[in-house]
Design brief:
CATH architecture of chain A: 3-Layer(aba) Sandwich
Number of domains of chain B: 3
Largest sheet of chain A: 9 strands, mixed
CATH architecture of the largest domain in chain B: 3-Layer(aba) Sandwich
Number of helices of chain A: 7
Radius of gyration of chain A: 22 Å
Helix content of chain B: 25-40%
Strand content of chain B: 25-35%
Distance between the termini of chain A: 57 Å
Structural class of chain A: alpha/beta
Order of helices and strands of chain A: EEEEEHEHEHEHEEEEHEHEEH
Mean pLDDT of chain B: 91
Largest interface: A-B, 99 and 110 residues
Number of strands of chain A: 15
Largest sheet of chain B: 7 strands, parallel
Number of strands of chain B: 22
CATH topology of the largest domain in chain B: Rossmann fold
Oligomer: heterodimer
Helix content of chain A: 25-40%
Strand order of the largest sheet of chain A: 11-10-9-12-8-1-6-7-13
Chain lengths: ~260, ~400
């Protein structure tokens, strides 16, 4: 079985802080990590390989330094890694990103399962996974929390919903976006880390992929950022002091109108 | 598409460096230099430069793909589950009416399902001028393929200029694929939607980087302008039974309603517990709860207030609460009217999931806990004394 995992390198967003003097983001020293949700996609890809045999190819689109994310994926069991990187891709929104990634997946060749994290922690859009499935014209199941079984070229999976979950059967190839409930990611072994160090990462640029050039990068992106600004930070309100009983009484009084 | 610094005009004043959210500009030899591996072409630096030394060329030729004047009307996708339109759709209708007023156009809702006549009427009462109703057994429950096919074909037929959809499991799965197919711009999780009074385009404001920055996004040359909005962000449209509107039935051949995936079963797990994303009041517990049995206390308070119980990641990882209750970066984002954080220190990962709540109450024994920095009301003390007192006081207050 050929498994493809799409990942994104993101800044550790929780470390992104605002400089209160200049009202700008401080990104100095903020480290880059694999999008937390993609870590579950990588693990699930490796587990599918262990259950059903085959090969896991991990793909990312991003600047040259995103190669380190790919090596990390190899260290936990992915077999091959592809970096899709080109200045021409700069400014890609989710439309152009899913278009570019789908072209890279096609170039990898035959595949049975494409895995993505449910969303990326920097943009939180949850659009690129579904977008890829549309560009590839394959069925998708989003928010997958369990891949029950794969046989006879079909998969039975559980999709998390607001109320519980759905049980869905899909023919392969298919794309799944996964949630963190799906597994517990492993930690790289020493052997894995050695392998990651030596592994060859394949580099593809815009020229290597069958792309229409007016559909990539900023030109191919329907959305544009008009402006970026810092939200007015929430400020601390009032501290209530006193005996539990009195404090509770005051709070009940303060919230009375909102509660009723 | 390109960005460049006009060296002759640049004085190295560093205004652009400060404006760049991606840390992509450096001053070298008193001139701004853009690091293209970091630059996202967002354009934040361009207006920041008082000397007009930054030249950003945005694409214009894409306009040829769409004849913008053909696109009219504000649409919402009305999400239904088990035959009930979800309240997020009524929230979208409220916003859609404002946008339509600014554009002097009509509001339409698209409703897919089976035997949904009464719900279609309610959509009119809530503000839809038209309801495009597609009734078929195949559309009884959401399935990606038939829903996507139907929505794409309606968009192509009627050409709405704006299409809004709830940022729910269903909405996000569906609308992303529709946007790809019709080559529309799609902005996720908008917290603000307005019409630019001059250009008459949709200004879509959303948080990024876990809420640390806000971005306003536009779709200048593609249509429809599509956006998703999370539940509880917009105000629900009220019912007015005197409102009139048209129900327009659309028929599809069964060939267009085929689903490659098969929905075998729908399992409801939450049962009597209220879904935290839906709740107006959330009582949430963290590491300070000390154990799963203590969450009963929070359940009692939640019950008195008619709210739901949430939890921090620490409590979920300790096995005290199921993941479906987790609030925060790797859990759910909530914005209830009241959020009561009990024994939650307030790590940034938790704060990004709840800091847009209207009123935040923090109860923690550590006076330095970061949760107090965002709390409307803070109480330093033992939650095991304060929460029971709150239960009693709220019971009394609500009895009156």
């Amino acid at each position: 079985m050929n498994i493809i995992v799409c990942i994104k390198q993101v800044p550790e967003t929780t470390e992104v802080k605002i400089n209160p003097q200049t009202n700008t983001l401080i990104r100095e020293g903020v480290k880059s990590i694999i999008n937390p949700f993609d870590v579950y996609a990588i693990e699930e890809g490796v587990r599918l390989k262990e259950r059903f045999g085959g090969k896991v190819t991990v793909i990312t689109m991003g600047p040259p330094q995103a190669e380190s994310a790919l090596r990390e994926a190899i260290s936990v069991g992915c077999d091959e890694a592809v970096l899709v990187s080109d200045r021409a891709f700069a400014g890609s929104d989710t439309w152009a990103s899913s278009y570019t990634l789908s072209a890279a997946i096609r170039k990898v060749g035959s595949f049975d399962v494409v895995l993505c994290g449910k969303q990326a922690s920097d943009g939180d859009t949850a659009q690129v996974g579904p977008g890829i499935s549309m560009h590839l014209d394959i069925p998708q199941v989003t928010y997958v929390k369990k891949i029950e079984d794969i046989k006879d070229n079909a998969a039975r999976v559980e999709r998390m919903t607001e109320e519980g979950y759905d049980i869905i059967e899909t023919p392969l190839p298919a794309l799944f976006t996964v949630v963190k409930e799906i597994n517990e990611p492993r930690i790289a072994s020493l052997k894995g880390m050695m392998r990651a160090k030596q592994a060859q990462v394949i580099h593809w640029t815009a020229k290597d992929l069958a792309l229409e050039h007016d559909k990539i990068g900023l030109t191919g992106s329907p959305t544009q950022v008009l402006k970026i600004f810092t939200p007015t930070p929430r400020t601390a309100g009032q501290m209530l002091h006193g005996e539990p009983h009195d404090v509770a009484a005051r709070l009940a009084e303060l919230l009375k109108n909102e509660v009723i | 598409m390109s960005i460049q610094v006009i060296i002759e005009k640049c004085t190295g004043c560093t205004l652009c460096v400060k404006a760049c959210p991606f840390d992509a500009i450096r001053i070298m030899d008193k001139k701004a230099v853009i690091d293209f591996s970091k630059c996202n072409l967002c354009g934040a630096c361009e207006p920041a430069c008082k000397l007009k030394a930054i030249l950003l060329e945005k694409p214009t030729e894409a306009g040829a793909r769409f004849k913008l004047s053909d696109y009219k009307g504000v649409w919402i996708f009305a999400e239904q589950k088990q035959g009930k339109v979800q309240s997020v759709s009524y929230e979208l209708l409220g916003k859609a009416r404002e946008l339509a007023a600014a554009l002097n156009t009509q509001v339409s809702a698209v409703l897919l399902g089976h035997q949904m006549e009464a719900e279609a009427t309610e959509l009119i009462w809530r503000g839809a001028d038209n309801v495009y109703l597609v009734d078929a057994r195949e559309l009884l429950n959401f399935q990606d393929d038939p829903y996507t096919n139907v929505l794409i074909s309606l968009v192509n037929k009627y050409k709405p200029e704006i299409l809004l959809c709830g940022a729910t499991t269903i909405g996000r799965s569906l609308i992303s694929r529709v946007a790809v197919k019709v080559y529309a711009g799609l902005t996720a999780d908008c917290t603000g939607l307005d019409i630019d009074p001059q250009k008459k385009i949709l200004l879509q404001t959303r948080p990024a980087f876990g809420g640390n920055i806000m971005a306003t996004i536009i779709t200048p040359n593609h249509r429809p302008q599509m956006a998703t909005v999370r539940h509880k962000v917009m105000k629900e449209a009220e019912i007015d039974k005197h409102r009139k509107g048209k129900i327009i039935r659309e028929d599809f051949k069964s060939g267009e309603l085929v689903s490659r995936t098969k929905l075998l079963d729908i399992i409801e797990e939450i049962g009597s517990l209220i879904n935290i994303a839906e709740a107006d009041i959330i009582v949430s517990g963290g590491r300070g709860m000390g154990g799963s049995e203590n969450f009963k206390l929070l359940e009692e308070l939640a019950k008195v207030l008619g709210g739901a119980v949430g939890s921090s990641r620490a409590a979920v990882d300790s096995g005290w609460m199921p993941y479906s209750h987790q609030v925060g970066q790797t859990g759910k984002t909530v914005c209830p009217k009241i959020y009561i954080a009990c024994g939650i220190s307030g790590q940034i990962q938790h704060l990004v999931g709840m800091q847009s709540s209207k009123t935040i109450i923090a109860i923690n024994k550590d006076p330095d806990a970061p949760i107090f920095k965002v709390a409307t009301y803070g109480i330093v003390g033992d939650l095991f004394e304060i929460v029971p007192a709150l239960i009693q006081k709220f019971k009394e207050a609500l009895r009156k």
